[in-house]
Design goal:
The chain has one helix and ten strands, in the order αββββββββββ. The protein has 203 residues and is mainly beta. It has an eight-stranded antiparallel β-barrel with strand order 1-3-4-5-6-8-9-10.
């Protein structure tokens, strides 16, 4: 009886999903305007322009609501101005590349136009930052992955508009929730903040 009940529930749920809105697969890419918020441990932290690319699935739920998990490669971080108080002054980048997994709830305001919000879970893939090499009197980029935590989380809010042909455009802001630093002896806190402009196609 228990197996029959479970089978019946699964069958009804499957039928319900099949009769609801369209299940969609898609791909997207776009521009990141990223920064590290919080404490400043350089002369000044500024925005860094980079990119994101990946895929998504839109799963219809009830009425105008749907769930949209995504898998993105996202290049984040910050640019900075460095001045040590004497003779060293330069501009550089902190380059933090992540695999991002946004899990967004979507609400369709009108046909094609949706508001979206939800958590973003991230795994650090690589980290590099610019340093001044006194012997070469030049700026060099070094591996700094050990200085940053391997996991991050943010909250995303945004909107998308999808044309009938399947092309869509979206704006999104990811507000970092966790301190990204893992530096011995440094007590400052910094968070990933990213504004994203995307274009894509879903079917």
């Amino acid at each position: 009886m228990k197996k029959l009940f479970i089978f019946t529930i699964i069958t009804l749920l499957s039928a319900s999903i099949a009769q609801s809105q369209e299940f969609r697969l898609g791909a997207k890419a776009g521009l990141n305007v990223a920064s590290l918020g919080g404490d400043t441990f350089y002369g000044g932290l500024n925005t860094r322009v980079s990119f994101h690319i990946g895929g998504l699935v839109e799963i219809p739920l009830v009425g105008k609501f749907s769930l949209q998990p995504e898998l993105l490669y996202s290049s984040q971080g910050s640019s900075f101005d460095y001045y040590n108080g004497t003779f060293v002054s330069f501009n550089g980048d902190v380059k933090l590349d992540y695999i991002n997994v946004p899990v967004l709830a979507k609400f369709y305001i009108i046909e094609g136009l949706s508001a979206e919000a939800g958590p973003v879970f991230s795994v650090l893939v690589s980290a590099e930052e610019d340093e001044y090499n006194a012997s070469e009197e030049a700026t060099v980029r070094v591996d700094s992955k050990d200085n940053y935590k391997g996991f991050d989380a943010a909250f995303a809010i945004g909107a998308s508009y999808r044309l009938n042909m399947g092309v869509f455009f979206s704006l999104r802001y990811n507000k970092g929730l966790l301190d990204v630093n893992d530096i011995d002896g440094y007590n400052g806190k910094n968070q990933n903040n990213v504004f994203q402009v995307s274009a894509g196609y879903s079917f």
